[in-house]
Design goal:
This protein has 10 helices and 8 strands. With 301 residues, it is an alpha/beta fold.
Length: 301
């Protein structure tokens, strides 16, 4: 533990280790991704994909290593028992900070297959990391405003098509598809703008989850629902690097997907869309109740 050092020095050490870890693993990742790109055959893919995923898991393990070195975090975790790395998982979580990504990866690495995130198209231009996300086949999504879609109706459904194509690839080997139902990080300003009925959460967006479940066919029959709570306040990324993430509470549970919600067209079937949205709203109400209970049980220190 290096928490006895001045916070700026802890942040410097953590930042350097984070960067070195990226620079070490990404070139290795790209070599195997290039082989798959040059030889786009199913047989090659079935051999190369497990290697690429193993590289990514080793990368995450090294992140966990420097986190343990620089953090003095108390982890309060329940519900991860019985998870398997040879199964397909649809994972859903609330989203409050970039730190959530490190929390999820740290706790789920090698318990389930590598988490695949849906990313904004602009993130492909992030130096080094954009290439890594491309190599790992994280789907890049374009988000268009209603005004843009009104002028360019031909762009409607493009994200749905991207999701379908990505999920077809995910069906080849066990994969974990990560979906932040809120679609963005929680902030008080966004919460007020939405007039969200959930004190601790933004409104859920059910469309992405519905499309992924539909595209993956019979691979997913349940959702791994995760709730992340920071009793001492949501840490910023700089708080994280400085070792100021004191307590993290995580609760996980497996929710069966009702048969009625396993098939249907969310985009065109209004009855199915209403039923699916109601199912997701029920999950969100339970998550809000859990966060309120955790807030009462674990006051800030």
């Amino acid at each position: 533990m290096l928490n006895f050092l001045p916070l700026p020095l802890v942040a410097l050490i953590a930042g350097v280790l984070l960067t070195l870890n990226i620079l070490f693993w990404v070139p290795i990742l790209l070599v195997f991704a290039a082989v798959k790109l040059l030889l786009p055959f199913r047989a090659v893919r079935l051999r190369i994909d497990p290697v690429i995923l193993s590289i990514a898991e080793s990368w995450i393990s090294c992140n966990s290593g420097w986190m343990k070195l620089t953090q003095k975090t108390t982890w309060n975790v329940q519900g991860l028992e019985g998870l398997r790395p040879d199964q397909w998982y649809m994972v859903s979580s609330n989203h409050q900070s970039w730190v959530d990504i490190f929390v999820l990866q740290h706790l789920l690495n090698r318990r389930i297959p590598l988490l695949k995130f849906f990313l904004k198209q602009q993130l492909i231009w992030v130096p080094v990391m954009g290439l890594a996300w491309w190599a790992l086949e994280f789907p890049f999504m374009r988000r268009h405003s209603k005004a843009y879609l009104k002028k360019h109706p031909e762009m409607r459904g493009k994200d749905q098509e991207t999701t379908r194509k990505a999920c077809e690839k995910f069906a080849l080997i066990p994969t974990s598809v990560m979906n932040f139902l809120e679609g963005t990080r929680f902030t008080p300003a966004k919460h007020a703008r939405q007039q969200s009925p959930y004190p601790h959460l933004l409104k859920p967006k059910a469309g992405g989850l519905a499309l992924a479940l539909q595209a993956m066919g019979n691979k997913f029959h349940s959702v791994l629902d995760i709730t992340i709570y920071y009793p001492d306040g949501v840490p910023t990324f700089m708080d994280f690097l400085c070792g100021r993430m004191r307590r993290v509470v995580v609760r996980a549970r497996t929710i069966s997907v009702p048969v009625a919600q396993q098939s249907g067209d969310y985009g065109t079937d209004a009855e199915f869309r209403a039923g699916f949205a109601a199912w997701v709203a029920g999950i969100w109400q339970e998550k809000e109740a859990l966060m309120s209970a955790l807030e009462a049980e674990l006051p800030p220190r």
